[in-house]
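Suppose you are handed a protein chain with no further information: no name, no annotation, nothing but its sequence. What can you learn? This example shows the usual starting point.
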Amino acid sequence: MSDVAQKNQTSPTPPERTQIYIDILQDRYPSTTSVGALNAGLPYPQDYHNFAKASNSNAPQSIRTIDPTLIFLAPSVIDATSSFIVLFDGAPIHNEDTRLRRQPSPSSGHPQSGANVFYSTALVPNFWEVIRTSQDPTVYSILQDVRRVDEHAPRELPRRQRSILIFSAIYQFRYVAPPGATATDLLETPTQLPAPFYGEDGVNGEPFSTFEDGLLYMNLINDFTAATSYDLSLAQNYDSQNQQ
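A reasonable first move is to predict its three-dimensional structure. Written in C-alpha coordinates, the prediction is:
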Protein backbone atom coordinates (compact mmCIF):
# COMPACT_ATOMS: atom_id res chain seq x y z
CA MET A 1 0.00 0.00 0.00
CA SER A 2 1.38 3.42 -0.91
CA ASP A 3 2.15 6.03 1.74
CA VAL A 4 -0.49 8.32 0.22
CA ALA A 5 -3.19 5.63 0.33
CA GLN A 6 -2.26 4.73 3.91
CA LYS A 7 -2.39 8.37 4.95
CA ASN A 8 -5.82 8.78 3.36
CA GLN A 9 -7.12 5.78 5.27
CA THR A 10 -5.92 7.09 8.63
CA SER A 11 -6.99 10.71 8.15
CA PRO A 12 -9.61 11.75 10.72
CA THR A 13 -13.13 12.24 9.46
CA PRO A 14 -14.24 15.90 9.65
CA PRO A 15 -16.85 16.40 12.38
CA GLU A 16 -20.49 16.64 11.39
CA ARG A 17 -22.23 19.84 12.38
CA THR A 18 -25.66 20.83 13.53
CA GLN A 19 -26.95 23.52 11.16
CA ILE A 20 -28.56 26.45 12.97
CA TYR A 21 -30.26 29.27 11.10
CA ILE A 22 -30.57 32.74 12.62
CA ASP A 23 -33.52 34.44 10.94
CA ILE A 24 -33.29 38.22 10.68
CA LEU A 25 -35.36 41.07 9.31
CA GLN A 26 -34.08 43.46 6.71
CA ASP A 27 -33.42 46.92 8.14
CA ARG A 28 -36.46 48.36 6.32
CA TYR A 29 -38.66 46.36 8.73
CA PRO A 30 -38.99 47.38 12.38
CA SER A 31 -38.23 44.61 14.87
CA THR A 32 -41.35 43.19 16.52
CA THR A 33 -39.61 43.11 19.90
CA SER A 34 -36.37 44.71 20.99
CA VAL A 35 -34.07 42.37 22.86
CA GLY A 36 -31.40 45.01 23.33
CA ALA A 37 -28.20 45.59 21.41
CA LEU A 38 -25.01 43.75 22.26
CA ASN A 39 -23.13 45.22 25.18
CA ALA A 40 -19.58 44.62 23.97
CA GLY A 41 -18.16 45.20 27.42
CA LEU A 42 -20.49 42.68 29.08
CA PRO A 43 -21.08 39.67 26.81
CA TYR A 44 -22.26 37.44 29.67
CA PRO A 45 -25.38 38.07 31.79
CA GLN A 46 -24.63 38.85 35.43
CA ASP A 47 -28.08 37.78 36.55
CA TYR A 48 -29.43 34.94 34.42
CA HIS A 49 -32.99 35.16 35.80
CA ASN A 50 -33.41 38.84 34.93
CA PHE A 51 -31.60 38.32 31.64
CA ALA A 52 -34.02 35.58 30.56
CA LYS A 53 -37.06 37.66 31.52
CA ALA A 54 -35.78 40.58 29.46
CA SER A 55 -35.26 38.42 26.37
CA ASN A 56 -38.55 36.75 25.60
CA SER A 57 -39.10 37.16 21.88
CA ASN A 58 -39.35 34.27 19.41
CA ALA A 59 -40.05 36.63 16.49
CA PRO A 60 -37.48 37.48 13.80
CA GLN A 61 -35.78 40.80 14.41
CA SER A 62 -33.09 43.06 13.03
CA ILE A 63 -29.62 41.72 13.65
CA ARG A 64 -28.85 45.04 15.31
CA THR A 65 -31.14 44.11 18.22
CA ILE A 66 -30.16 40.47 18.68
CA ASP A 67 -28.35 39.51 21.86
CA PRO A 68 -25.82 36.86 20.77
CA THR A 69 -25.58 35.04 24.10
CA LEU A 70 -25.71 31.24 23.73
CA ILE A 71 -26.98 29.05 26.56
CA PHE A 72 -25.71 25.46 26.85
CA LEU A 73 -27.30 22.67 28.87
CA ALA A 74 -24.91 20.03 30.20
CA PRO A 75 -25.85 16.86 32.10
CA SER A 76 -23.11 17.56 34.67
CA VAL A 77 -20.45 20.10 35.61
CA ILE A 78 -17.85 20.46 32.84
CA ASP A 79 -14.75 22.48 32.00
CA ALA A 80 -15.40 23.51 28.40
CA THR A 81 -14.08 25.84 25.73
CA SER A 82 -15.83 27.13 22.62
CA SER A 83 -13.84 27.64 19.41
CA PHE A 84 -15.25 29.84 16.64
CA ILE A 85 -14.27 30.33 13.00
CA VAL A 86 -16.01 33.04 10.96
CA LEU A 87 -16.45 32.43 7.23
CA PHE A 88 -17.00 35.18 4.66
CA ASP A 89 -18.59 33.70 1.53
CA GLY A 90 -17.16 30.36 2.65
CA ALA A 91 -13.60 31.59 3.29
CA PRO A 92 -12.26 31.71 6.89
CA ILE A 93 -11.39 35.24 8.03
CA HIS A 94 -11.44 35.17 11.85
CA ASN A 95 -11.12 32.73 14.73
CA GLU A 96 -11.33 32.99 18.51
CA ASP A 97 -11.85 30.89 21.63
CA THR A 98 -14.10 31.56 24.62
CA ARG A 99 -14.67 29.73 27.90
CA LEU A 100 -18.12 28.48 28.80
CA ARG A 101 -19.22 30.15 32.03
CA ARG A 102 -21.57 28.47 34.43
CA GLN A 103 -24.87 30.28 35.04
CA PRO A 104 -27.50 29.93 37.77
CA SER A 105 -30.30 27.56 36.82
CA PRO A 106 -33.63 29.29 36.11
CA SER A 107 -36.66 28.80 38.30
CA SER A 108 -38.48 25.45 38.36
CA GLY A 109 -41.21 26.78 36.07
CA HIS A 110 -38.75 27.56 33.27
CA PRO A 111 -39.06 25.31 30.14
CA GLN A 112 -35.39 24.33 30.37
CA SER A 113 -35.18 23.79 34.13
CA GLY A 114 -34.39 20.36 35.53
CA ALA A 115 -31.26 18.34 36.16
CA ASN A 116 -29.20 20.30 33.63
CA VAL A 117 -26.24 22.54 34.40
CA PHE A 118 -26.39 25.87 32.52
CA TYR A 119 -23.45 27.50 30.75
CA SER A 120 -23.20 30.54 28.51
CA THR A 121 -20.87 32.13 26.02
CA ALA A 122 -21.19 34.90 23.46
CA LEU A 123 -21.28 34.16 19.74
CA VAL A 124 -17.91 35.41 18.38
CA PRO A 125 -17.75 38.34 20.85
CA ASN A 126 -14.68 39.90 19.18
CA PHE A 127 -16.29 39.85 15.72
CA TRP A 128 -20.01 40.21 16.41
CA GLU A 129 -19.95 43.99 15.96
CA VAL A 130 -18.63 43.54 12.41
CA ILE A 131 -21.49 41.17 11.56
CA ARG A 132 -24.07 43.28 13.38
CA THR A 133 -23.20 46.44 11.43
CA SER A 134 -22.57 44.83 8.04
CA GLN A 135 -24.81 45.64 5.08
CA ASP A 136 -25.51 41.94 4.48
CA PRO A 137 -24.97 39.58 7.45
CA THR A 138 -25.95 36.57 5.30
CA VAL A 139 -22.48 36.52 3.72
CA TYR A 140 -21.13 35.37 7.10
CA SER A 141 -21.28 31.88 8.60
CA ILE A 142 -19.93 30.87 12.00
CA LEU A 143 -18.45 27.48 12.86
CA GLN A 144 -18.43 26.46 16.51
CA ASP A 145 -16.81 23.54 18.32
CA VAL A 146 -17.31 23.00 22.05
CA ARG A 147 -14.80 20.77 23.79
CA ARG A 148 -14.73 19.60 27.39
CA VAL A 149 -11.62 18.57 29.28
CA ASP A 150 -11.32 14.84 29.87
CA GLU A 151 -10.67 14.47 33.60
CA HIS A 152 -8.94 11.12 33.03
CA ALA A 153 -6.42 12.41 30.48
CA PRO A 154 -2.80 12.96 31.62
CA ARG A 155 -2.36 16.44 33.08
CA GLU A 156 0.95 16.98 31.30
CA LEU A 157 -0.80 17.02 27.91
CA PRO A 158 -1.85 20.38 26.41
CA ARG A 159 -5.45 21.32 27.09
CA ARG A 160 -6.54 20.75 23.49
CA GLN A 161 -5.14 17.21 23.50
CA ARG A 162 -7.06 16.50 26.72
CA SER A 163 -10.32 17.80 25.25
CA ILE A 164 -13.28 15.89 23.83
CA LEU A 165 -15.56 17.37 21.16
CA ILE A 166 -19.12 17.45 22.55
CA PHE A 167 -20.91 19.97 20.31
CA SER A 168 -20.33 21.24 16.79
CA ALA A 169 -22.48 23.66 14.80
CA ILE A 170 -22.60 26.05 11.88
CA TYR A 171 -24.64 29.24 12.30
CA GLN A 172 -26.02 30.88 9.17
CA PHE A 173 -28.00 34.10 8.84
CA ARG A 174 -31.01 34.38 6.54
CA TYR A 175 -33.61 37.04 5.85
CA VAL A 176 -37.29 36.42 6.53
CA ALA A 177 -40.39 38.52 6.00
CA PRO A 178 -42.12 39.78 9.16
CA PRO A 179 -45.62 38.62 10.18
CA GLY A 180 -48.30 40.23 8.01
CA ALA A 181 -45.95 40.85 5.10
CA THR A 182 -47.49 41.40 1.66
CA ALA A 183 -46.91 39.23 -1.40
CA THR A 184 -44.45 41.83 -2.67
CA ASP A 185 -42.51 41.63 0.58
CA LEU A 186 -42.28 37.86 0.25
CA LEU A 187 -40.90 38.15 -3.28
CA GLU A 188 -38.28 40.63 -2.10
CA THR A 189 -37.20 38.51 0.86
CA PRO A 190 -34.71 35.72 0.00
CA THR A 191 -36.02 33.13 2.50
CA GLN A 192 -39.28 32.77 4.40
CA LEU A 193 -38.89 30.18 7.14
CA PRO A 194 -40.11 30.43 10.74
CA ALA A 195 -38.19 30.54 14.01
CA PRO A 196 -35.27 32.89 14.59
CA PHE A 197 -33.07 29.90 15.50
CA TYR A 198 -33.51 26.46 14.03
CA GLY A 199 -31.35 23.40 14.68
CA GLU A 200 -31.46 19.95 13.12
CA ASP A 201 -32.55 17.13 15.42
CA GLY A 202 -29.80 15.28 17.22
CA VAL A 203 -29.39 11.98 19.03
CA ASN A 204 -32.49 9.81 19.47
CA GLY A 205 -34.70 12.59 18.16
CA GLU A 206 -33.62 14.97 20.94
CA PRO A 207 -32.99 18.45 19.54
CA PHE A 208 -29.51 19.85 19.81
CA SER A 209 -30.97 23.33 20.08
CA THR A 210 -34.21 24.94 21.15
CA PHE A 211 -35.30 28.56 21.34
CA GLU A 212 -36.87 29.72 24.60
CA ASP A 213 -37.06 33.12 26.29
CA GLY A 214 -35.31 34.74 23.35
CA LEU A 215 -32.19 32.65 23.95
CA LEU A 216 -30.67 29.77 22.00
CA TYR A 217 -30.27 26.63 24.12
CA MET A 218 -27.92 23.85 23.05
CA ASN A 219 -27.82 20.39 24.59
CA LEU A 220 -24.30 19.14 25.33
CA ILE A 221 -23.93 15.38 25.32
CA ASN A 222 -21.20 13.13 26.69
CA ASP A 223 -20.18 11.51 23.39
CA PHE A 224 -20.30 13.75 20.34
CA THR A 225 -22.78 12.89 17.60
CA ALA A 226 -24.43 15.34 15.21
CA ALA A 227 -26.86 15.42 12.34
CA THR A 228 -25.66 17.63 9.51
CA SER A 229 -22.44 17.31 7.48
CA TYR A 230 -20.36 20.33 6.47
CA ASP A 231 -17.16 20.55 4.44
CA LEU A 232 -14.50 21.69 6.90
CA SER A 233 -11.42 21.52 4.65
CA LEU A 234 -10.90 25.30 4.53
CA ALA A 235 -11.72 25.77 8.19
CA GLN A 236 -9.40 22.95 9.27
CA ASN A 237 -6.51 24.39 7.26
CA TYR A 238 -7.15 27.83 8.74
CA ASP A 239 -7.35 26.42 12.27
CA SER A 240 -4.09 24.45 11.93
CA GLN A 241 -2.23 27.44 10.48
CA ASN A 242 -3.25 29.62 13.43
CA GLN A 243 -2.10 27.01 15.94
CA GLN A 244 1.43 26.86 14.51
